[in-house]
Amino acid sequence: MTSELVKVRKLQRLGDYRLKLWFSDGQAGEWDFSELARRGTPLTRAFEDPAYFDRVFLEYGALTWPNGYDWSPEALYRDMAGAGALKAESVAA
């Protein structure tokens, strides 16, 4: 784990609610976000459409969508690290 704040530096859409993410500390990995489509809350209902999920962009190092939903890069990093989904990889990869 890192003690500094991490940000997502780059993302790649892989389809089926999956993204590959590169973090500011040099770690990278793939993550499945399909749970967003199953939450069923007013803010997450848009994610039932995979095309809407693919509208993700980076804002201040956080995954963000047009409806204002964002995902904390620190929490995402913690979850991915805990699951063993991160490895050292340069952004240029």
UniProtKB/TrEMBL annotation:
| Species | Brevundimonas halotolerans
Q: What InterPro entries does its record include? A: DUF2442, NE0471-like_N
* Name of this protein: DUF2442 domain-containing protein
Q: What SUPFAM superfamilies is this protein classified in?
A: NE0471 N-terminal domain-like
- Determine the domain of life of the protein's source: Bacteria
Gene3D superfamilies found in the cross-reference section = NE0471-like N-terminal domain
